Amino acid sequence: MPNLISLLCPSRGRPKKLARLIKSITTTATIPSRIEILIYVDDDDPEKFEYILSHKNLILDPLISKLKNIDLLVDQPFRTPILNNILSDRAQGNILMITNDDQIFRDKNWDIRIDEEARKFPDNIYCMWFNDGRYQEKICTFPILSREWVDTIGYIEPFLFEHFNCDLWTWQIGKMIDRLHYIPDILVEHLHPDTGKAEQDETTMRNLKGRRPEIDKLIFAKSERYRVLDASILQEKINADKN
To answer: In this structure, what DSSP letter does residue 19 have?
Structure first.
């Protein structure tokens, strides 16, 4: 039985980019019927009604309709990690993947590659990631996590942060338990302003407001003991499955 893959995508101010992401996910998947996309939009987003209209049009598209589910949740604004946890709780999948509305899935059969790599971890504790065209193997941007990983530690992203360092947090935990797994042959391109492939928009600037990067960096530096604790919880699960 193929894995059910849930892609989680909070989005703000980018309905057209989100539609582009969804189309790229669908056209490059081998079995779109086992893929769901869960979207969170703030109810104060100036583009809220454009998102709602776009969602209605997308679900009527013959290609997009092949997906198992494409769910749009419009609700009050929260910090990005909270949004991803809300979506994770709603997800049906046994494999969860964090995505961004400024990504494009470039290579076909990405879902089959997830199946192939997940089989290497019979205890279902792993942190995988694709080539993002930015950081590549250096860090697990947009981690692909098993449901067992998320359920064992109780979250998909740590609630401590405003926006940044969540992927670094997950990467460090995966490194502690030797469960990091990079998939270089699948490009899911991140069109971030840092790469010169996109201009800074209002959403980018909003994420940088109030010294958010510096604050999250300081929180990260002070919270190593919590990563060690969560790594030990995952390691206990790995060890128990060996017995």
So the answer is: H
**What is the C-alpha separation between 199 and 32, in angstroms, rounded?**
31
CB atoms within 10 A of CB 146: 22
Residue 204, domain CATH: 3.90.550.10
Number of domains present in the structure of the chain: 1
Provide the token pair at 176. Answer: 């502690």
Contact 241, 123 (CB under 8 A): yes
Give the residue from 66, 65, 64, 71 showing the smallest Cα distance to 88: 71
Contact yes or no for 179/239 (Cβ under 8 A) = no
Q: How far apart are CA 185 and CA 187, in angstroms?
A: 6
Give the range of the structural domain holding residue 34, as residue numbers without chain letter: 5-242
In contact, 41 and 11? CB cutoff 8 Å:
yes
Contact 141, 129 (CB under 8 A): yes
Strands (E), the chain: 5-11, 35-42, 69-75, 95-98, 103-105, 127-131, 144-146, 180-190
pTM of the complete model: 0.95
What's the pLDDT tens digit per position in 179-197?
Answer: 999 999 999 999 988 888 8
Structure tokens at 48: 């809220």
